[in-house]
Every structure is written in structure tokens, then in C-alpha cells.
């Protein structure tokens, strides 16, 4: 069931997930009337609205329309402002986590090389933001050597997080703490629970589908939604993911289509990364529990001997 409507206020709205960087999209603000109609659609369908902002300032007229409905704001802020801990967004997006400080969750988009070099900055960020969401922008390029580096980084970060928990803090890092708290899949939901409205008044599965090809829409404000084979976006129809317990996995629909040409079939790289996170979360959960009761209602994460559920397809019922 649809629950969220992402409204891209501009063609150059900030990328907050695997979506390619702004690059050569060319600016283009959503016309005010389109914004009003989008809000109306969201109200009629009872959807929670998430506005995604461009870097430029919007006029007072836009601000008034934006504020006319409950929503959350996703913005990118320059490094200088991140340091000051400004609070005019519900989620901040940044390409650098050096010295960040914030009172709302921060999304850090990074490539693997930068990630591997940033252990100290991540540890520092965990003390200064309520939640850090790491989004890898080059998942499909991971090699076996990279997987090993990722595993080592997660293990090192888990030790830091364990120490913080023992000190009575509760840092959140999507890669390690989400799986400890989840009892079922919690993925991106593009095309199923979430759709995106672009500045051209058309709907898309997610921002990446709009940025990649504007003709790839799933309806428009005038004629409503038209999602072909919409069951394919649901977990029950995902042949591999429905057998998986890496509940924290992003299960990126756009990345699926990019790498396997199927929206419901993930790449090997996406699965291995999610399982390295799952296994490191298991270790973290077990280690925190050695210090005392922790998440007593949460089941243990069981030990498994694979990193890609596809390798266990013989055991599926
Ligand atoms: S790890 Fe792979 S199979 Fe599991 S949810 Fe993620 S993409 Fe799907």
C-alpha cells in the first residue's frame, strides 16, 4: 500500500540515495500549480509527503505552499553549515562527514574508497548526530578485495559502537544498528509504499528513475498512477529477497534494474554487502549483550554460512 510521496521540488534536488549525482540534469523548479496539485494528490491518497530540496533558496510563495501540509524536508547543506548544527531540515544529505554535527539524521553519500578511508570520521560523526545513514554510490563495482575491506571496516566500527553503548549512548548507524532492531524487512519501498512526483508533474518509481530517463514515468497528476506489473515491486514477488533475513538491506529497486534488468532481482554485490552488514550486526548484538540485558524482546540473529541467498536456492521451499 502506498504510504509516502516524495516530491522533487526541482530537477536539481539533492540526491539522497543511490541516485546519480546532480551532474547535468539542468535546473527546473516545480511549477507552483504542479506543487499544489501534488499536495492535493498526497492528501487524497493519505500519503506522508517528503520534499526534496535543491541547493537554491525558494521564494516565500513556495514556502507557504510547502508548509500547507504535514511533511518532512530533505536538504543538502554546505559543510560550513553542517558544522553549525543547523536544524531547518528533517534529514540532511552530505557528501562529506568530516566534523559534522547535527540534531537530525544525516545521510552520507560516499563511494567505497572514501568510506574505507573514513573510519575515524564515522566514529566522530556517531557521537555528533542522532543517526548516520551511509549510502554507497558504487555498490556494483565491489570486488572480493573490497568486500574484505568492507568486512574489516564494519568490524572496527562495531567495536566503537559497542563501547558507546556500554557508556550508555545509543548511536545509530544504518549499516550496523538497524538489523539489531528489526524483526522484518525494512527496505526502500520504491514503487510499492513510496512513489516520486517530479517537477514535470509525472510520477516515477523513485527519483533515480526520473533522473535517468524522464520518459520512464508511471503516470501523472492529470491521469493518476499507472504502475505496470505493480506486484513486481512487492517483497512477496521478489524471488530472492523473500527468502532473506538481511532485513536492513536497502533492496534498491533502481540498482536492481540497473544491474540485473529486473526491478525485483538484486545483484550479487548488493546481497553480499547486506550480508556482511547483517553478520557484523549479529556480532555487535552478541557483544553488547555480554555487558547486560539489551533488546530482550529481539531474537538472536542466527549464524549463517552464505553471503548471497541465491547460493542457497536449493533449500528454498
Ligand atoms: S541481501 Fe539480497 S536478497 Fe537480501 S534483501 Fe538485500 S537484495 Fe534482497
What structural category do the secondary elements indicate? alpha/beta
Could you state the order of secondary-structure elements as H and E?
A: EHEHEHEEHHEHHEEHEEHH
Distance between the termini: 27 Å
User: What summary fits the major beta sheet?
Assistant: 8 strands, mixed
Ligand types? iron/sulfur cluster
Radius of gyration: 20 Å
Strand content: 5-15%
Provide mean pLDDT, rounded: 93
Strand order within the widest beta sheet: 6-5-4-3-2-1-7-8
The number of helices is: 10
> Unreliable runs, pLDDT <50, ≥5 residues?
none
| Helicity, as a percent range | 25-40%
Count the beta strands.
10
- The coarse overall form would be globular
Give a brief outline of the structure.
The protein is α/β, with parallel strands linked by helices and 317 residues long. It contains 10 helices and 10 strands.
Amino acid at each position: 500500500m502506498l504510504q509516502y510521496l516524495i516530491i522533487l521540488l526541482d530537477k536539481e534536488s539533492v540526491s539522497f540515495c543511490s541516485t546519480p549525482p546532480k551532474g547535468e540534469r539542468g535546473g527546473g523548479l516545480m511549477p507552483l500549480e504542479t506543487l499544489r496539485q501534488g499536495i492535493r494528490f498526497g492528501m487524497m491518497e493519505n500519503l506522508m509527503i517528503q520534499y526534496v530540496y535543491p541547493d537554491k533558496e525558494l521564494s516565500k510563495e513556495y514556502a507557504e505552499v510547502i508548509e500547507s501540509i504535514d511533511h518532512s524536508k530533505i536538504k543538502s547543506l554546505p559543510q560550513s553549515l553542517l558544522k553549525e548544527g543547523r536544524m531547518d531540515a528533517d534529514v540532511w544529505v552530505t557528501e562529506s562527514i568530516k566534523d559534522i554535527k547535527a540534531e537530525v539524521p544525516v545521510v552520507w553519500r560516499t563511494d567505497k574508497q572514501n568510506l574505507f578511508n573514513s573510519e575515524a570520521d564515522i566514529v566522530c560523526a556517531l557521537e555528533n548526530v542522532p543517526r548516520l545513514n551511509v549510502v554507497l554510490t558504487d555498490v556494483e563495482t565491489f570486488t572480493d578485495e573490497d568486500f574484505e575491506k568492507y568486512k574489516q571496516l564494519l568490524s572496527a566500527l562495531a567495536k566503537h559502537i559497542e563501547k558507546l553503548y556500554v557508556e550508555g549512548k545509543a548511536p545509530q548507524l544504518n549499516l550496523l544498528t538497524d538489523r539489531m532492531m528489526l524483526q522484518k524487512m525494512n527496505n526502500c519501498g520504491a514503487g510499492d509504499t513510496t512513489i516520486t512526483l517530479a517537477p514535470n508533474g509525472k510520477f516515477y518509481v523513485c527519483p533515480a528513475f526520473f533522473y535517468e530517463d524522464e520518459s520512464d514515468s508511471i503516470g501523472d497528476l492529470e491521469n493518476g498512477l499507472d504502475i505496470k506489473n505493480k506486484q513486481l515491486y512487492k517483497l512477496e514477488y521478489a524471488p530472492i529477497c523473500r527468502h532473506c533475513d538481511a532485513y536492513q538491506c536497502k533492496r534498491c529497486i533502481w540498482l536492481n534494474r540497473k544491474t540485473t534488468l529486473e526491478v525485483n532481482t538484486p545483484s550479487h554485490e548488493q546481497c553480499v554487502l547486506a550480508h556482511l552488514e547483517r553478520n557484523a550486526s549479529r556480532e555487535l548484538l552478541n557483544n553488547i549483550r555480554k555487558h547486560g540485558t539489551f533488546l530482550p524482546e529481539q531474537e538472536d540473529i542466527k549464524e549463517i554460512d552464505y553471503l548471497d541467498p541465491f547460493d542457497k536456492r536449493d533449500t528454498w521451499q
